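Why does residue order matter? Because the sequence determines the fold. Keep that principle in mind as you read this record.
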Amino acid sequence: MNEHLHTALSLAAQSVPVLPLRAGKLPFGNCPACARNACGGRPNMKTPGPCACPRPCHGWAAATTDPHTINSAAWAPVWRHAAAVAYHPGGAGVTVVDLDDPAAIAWARKTLPATRTVATTRGEHWIYRGTMQSANAVRPGIDIKSQMQYARWLGPGASATAALPDAVRALAVKEPSAARRAPQTLSVPLSGQRGACPHCTPTYLERGIAMAEQRITAASSAVHATVYRTFLAVLSTHGRCGCLTDAHAARLFTAAQAKGESARHCTDAWTNALTTLGL
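Structure:
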């Protein structure tokens, strides 16, 4: 049996979703049905389109634990030409801190708790138990690979796997500039306009906030964009008369965070909507 295929089947039996890589640590090209990313996947094949083909053509989304798929006739030619095996860390319930040079490793040893470590060509993978959003270049020489990302399988590594620390989660949080910070209180009008509220009854505002919460909660994809558009719609209708309060904003932020958005992303989306509307 092909060495890479054997490794893939072994990992899949341990509930680790796997996929083959070609030379250059890249996924294989799109299958004929998705040629030139016709189904919507991005050219680098790291972002999947709405494709259900049996071949590994969309990076991390092609990773699977199904031995029948891995060992199928459709995948056989791919394994014969595979240069390595990759896995989806998020699907395996882990996060990989990819340290690409000695300086990055030195920083990690001073800053992060010890965990399972795997040697790479130029550095190390530090593997933690737990998942988070993936992010590239969070520090010089450091990438985070977890949800919606793949990592090359380089062996089981050494030492016990520690729980994902807040210090790693914090690396993926981008600090907004001072000019883009959202106001801490929304209990006063969001513009210089004053006077009677143009809305007929308080019920109108309540219905609008409830519909906005529902729109965010119902989002099954493009959550970032949905949250921003929803904030924009609420502020365009209610942001100039002063009727929005902290409580209303908190309800929208809570709905967004329940869909996986961070507090920082909510703040950025709210601030961007204010800026767009000139508020």
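DSSP finds nine helices and ten strands in the chain.
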